[in-house]
Write a structure and sequence with these properties.
Oligomer: heterodimer
Number of helices of chain A: 4
Mean pLDDT of chain B: 96
Largest interface: A-B, 42 and 47 residues
Mean pLDDT of chain A: 94
Shape of chain B: globular
Helix content of chain A: 10-25%
Shape of chain A: elongated
Low-confidence stretches of chain A: none
Largest sheet of chain B: 10 strands, mixed
Distance between the termini of chain A: 8 Å
Radius of gyration of chain A: 14 Å
Strand content of chain B: 25-35%
Strand content of chain A: 25-35%
Strand order of the largest sheet of chain A: 2-3-5-4
Distance between the termini of chain B: 37 Å
Number of helices of chain B: 13
Number of strands of chain B: 19
Helix content of chain B: 25-40%
Strand order of the largest sheet of chain B: 12-13-9-8-1-2-3-7-4-19
Low-confidence stretches of chain B: none
Largest sheet of chain A: 4 strands, antiparallel
Structural class of chain B: alpha+beta
Number of strands of chain A: 6
Chain lengths: 110, 455
Amino acid sequence: MSAGTSKTLGELAKTVRSKNAGVDKITFDVIFRERETYELVKRSGVLTRATVAALYKVPEERISDFVTFDPAYAIKFTLYRERPSGSPGDADIFGAQQYAPLLDVEVPSG
Amino acid sequence: MPAQTLRFLCPNGHLGFAPLKTGSFRLGVETRPDFILADSGSDDIGPGPLGSDTSTSPREWQRHDLEHMLLAARELGVPMIIGSAGDTGTNSRVDLYVEMIREIATKHRLPPFKIGWFYSEMAPTLLREKLAGGEVISGLDGRPDLTAEELAATDRIVAVAGVHPYEALLDRGADVIIGGRSSDSVIFAAPAVRAGYPEALAYYLGKVLECASFNAEPYGGKETVIGEISMDDVKVTAMHPEQRCTVASVAGHAMYERSNPFYEHVAGGTLDMTHCVYEQLTEKTTRITGPTFTRSQGVRVKLEGAGKVGERYVGFVGIRDPYTVAHVDEVIGWARQQVRERFGEDGYELHYQVYGRNGVMGDRDPLKERPGHEVGVLVFGVAPTREMAEEVAITGTRQMFYARLPNVKGTAGGVAFPLDEVVAASPAYRWTLNHTMRVDDPLELFPLHVDEVRP
């Protein structure tokens, strides 16, 4: 990548997914194929508690966990649900389609 | 101290939800594992099955997997263990699986064997007594502690077992175990702990095996994997010819559907995977060392509970007029007002999901202000009786047709109906309990049974 350009997480990551973590939370995994890309995204600061809270329009207190997980080259965070999975009004019982906004996050090249 | 390793075969991460693949299962069986095990439960499926005491899995798929596993286990003369029977692990689901095992044994005229099972359901009255006695039923994941009101809204409760009932049934000589609701990992951990392996490795073994081939790559569910435990490590191997357990796939699985990849809580303690080391041992096998396990002071058992919210009807409309698409919230507002005028402010629920705009993500969708050129609106009416739920839903759906938008060009009907009716759905439930309760004896909520199967 040349200086000054940027790519999206959708282009850089091997896996971007969301899934229930129990009945009250949805967890998000952004997994990279190589260590270099993982480190680049970690360093870039585009994924932090603050940026994720802003992206999902929730206060930071609604993020239960935010971790980087070196063995899997993964950045992972978990949001409390608005309502428990499968309650009337919940449109995503498995929490499986909540990751899409992450795909468009821009990562400046190192 | 155990002299050798023990090998555990897992063919399916959620027995019944989709059938196991027989090719890799047979390859695994040919390696003569010491145990054949699978988890059959999930709280992913929403609160409906627990609340209504039903399975989301078809019986034929449940029977398919039980039959393959039972025949292989009896052929090898090794224990077969199933946890969280029938998706929810309620008493009726345990009974269903025990009965299926008896039928399969009869069909194949298997030599006699011992079957053990335990129940997990907790009567709401028992929990009411605990609450009244001052016991704190602690909320998990940000929930408040349990109140009498929330308990009163609960129809069915299961307690989530640790290793204890599985160990006890193995002690009693069970060849086949059908478990009520259990933590996924303990089904595998129990025989390993009982055999004298370190708890940390035993629980890690369970954690890495419980979803079967979800810990392998390339992606492909319902394929068999085998985990092997020694005094020093856990090794996990994919059985499908095209699949491999790699450092990336195994480590990646530690994160799957958990809020944190480092900790796994079970009745009796916590597995800590922070310092796990993953090594590619051979092409298909990854070796893991370094997990730790901390026993808790006293045992707290997790409780899951579901309660009925009401009967439910569903309607659907489409909108193509760009002005109406842009003002769909006002259309919904009009329909809501008509329902309010008929039924008042509460005593029912009315939900709208606007597909083509933010149906999937609701208010969290960053593209909410950029709807498509047409949108579809799904309407849910929930109320105490079927009649009322139907009327709430049909009013909330049909009145969108009559919404009074000031500048709309089309004055012959504001929405398109693919159906001029609303459709009965299953009743609506919600998760009322995601809590923990202290127990003096880790077996007290899990009554054990053993019987001889003599086809």
